[in-house]
Write a structure and sequence with these properties.
The chain is α+β, with helices and mostly antiparallel strands. It has one domain (9-136): 2,3-Dihydroxybiphenyl 1,2-Dioxygenase, domain 1. It is built from 3 helices and 8 strands, in the order βαβββαβαβββ. The chain has helices at 20-30, 69-77, 91-100, and strands spanning 9-16, 35-41, 46-53, 56-63, 80-87, 111-112, 118-122, 132-136. A hairpin with a 5-residue loop joins strand 6 (111-112) and strand 7. The longest helix has 11 residues, at 20-30.
Length: 141
Amino acid sequence: MKPVVSPEKIDHVGIAVKSLETAVPLYRDILGLPFLGEETVDSEQVRVAFFRLGEVKVELLEPTSPESPIARFIEKRGEGIHHIALSVKEIEGELEGLAAAGIRLIDERPKPGANGTQVAFLHPKSTLGVLYELCQPGKSN
């Protein structure tokens, strides 16, 4: 049986935090992960900080609005692992295949993500409780 999705690798693990100011020193200074930078992703109402851990990145997500999905996540579940991002070559085709296979999509179309990527989320009710993000690198990545 041919798989519906063809991920290339785990791109990153997203971790919801209340404050980057508090969280960044833990990951950079205590855990020793190389800091890759910080940016705001307006489409998701978050500030993000990235760290490298081998081939995988760790993405810290701080809400910029009380209405953001990350703020609601923290309010309901507390800080912690939020999602796993899978790197794909052709995100639109992957979304079409997933929808045809009956997977519930949070995003039917890709939207801008951090570092020039295009991203879309799969609903955890269709993926055994795990929130997955498909992530297509931008031209410069």
